[in-house]
Amino acid sequence: MTFHIKRGPLMKPVTKTCSLMFMAAMLAGCDTTTTSTPETEMTQETTSTVSGTALYRERIALPPGAAFEATLEDVSLADAPAKVLGRVGFEAPSGPPIAFEISYDAADIEPRHRYAVRARIEHEGRLMFTTDTHYPVLTQGAPDTVEMLLVRVATPPPSNASLENTYWKVMSIRGEPVTVAERQREPHLILHPDDQRVSGHGGCNSMMGGYEVNGDQLTFKQMAGTMMACPEGMEQEQALHQALGEVILWQVAGEQLQLRDGDDVVVLELESRYME
User: Fold this and answer.
1) Which CATH number does 166-273 carry?
2) In the record, which residues are listed under signal peptide (predicted)?
């Protein structure tokens, strides 16, 4: 018996439709094009770098394992700690110059703000070299490359720091943290016992005068300074001079120095720095 299959009118349209669907599926499977997300595009477009070199004057080689670190900081706010926007660290070469590059998000940069780079070298947790000033970058005419000079830091003794013949960095004035304005030195004091003379810096101006120490009592006298007028830091410098005039007592604990007034209130807090 012979069977005849009669093709209906819908067979060909169905066949064409299936063929088109199969071709579309094949093309979709072959498409390997990737699409960047907005987050990826933002990261690629806004990442920038600050580069520079770090030097030091001493003709010494760094020990194996010494670590170099540089940071990009927002130093705009005088009454708050600097905000770190970028950081780079690596094992330092045996000697300078040390080249570095710090990546940061350009979207974080405000044209009205001030930015600076700092650097340090440590070995086994001990600070060997550090910058003692701000190196401005990026805004207000500052470049995006810097050449920095690092200052050597000597090994501190194991006992309490001495009141005299010690570089005392001013950390706070009446509880307010001390900041270092752009292109200024850090406020500090050094008491010289040979002639009972005090020298130091307020940030904008150098200062000098005399002092008397008797047991735990300390007074500063005839304090004077240069007469430069700086656009920033003058109020802080005036507060430092005023606080020195109120000092009656001193106390050293480890590497910290507290200077107190007649009411036993801490007016100045300082920290020792052993600079060679």
Assistant:
1) 2.40.128.270
2) 1-27
Whole-angstrom distance, CA of residue 51 vs CA of residue 49: 6
φ, ψ dihedrals at 274, nearest 5°: -105, 90
Mean pLDDT across the chain: 82
Question: Residues 167, 169, 175, 178: what is their CA dihedral angle, to the nearest 10 degrees?
Answer: 160
Using a cut of 0.90, tell me whether the model's pTM lies above it. no
CB 188 within 8 A of CB 168: yes
Question: Of all helices (H) and strands (E), which one includes residue 244?
Answer: helix 234-246
Residue range(s) in the chain whose domain bears CATH number 2.40.128.270:
166-273
Q: Coil, helix or strand for 185?
A: coil
Least confident piece of the model among 10-24, 182-196, 201-215: 10-24
More confident residue, 75 or 233: 75
Where exactly does CATH 2.60.40.2990 map onto the chain? 47-152
The fold of the 47-152 domain, in CATH, is: Immunoglobulin-like (2.60.40)
Write the CA distances from 7 to 1, 11, 34, integer angstroms: 19, 7, 45
User: How far apart, in whole angstroms, are the C-alpha atoms of residue 11 and residue 38?
Assistant: 47
Cβ(133)–Cβ(164) below 8 Å: no
Q: What are phi and psi of 58, to 5 degrees?
A: -65, 140
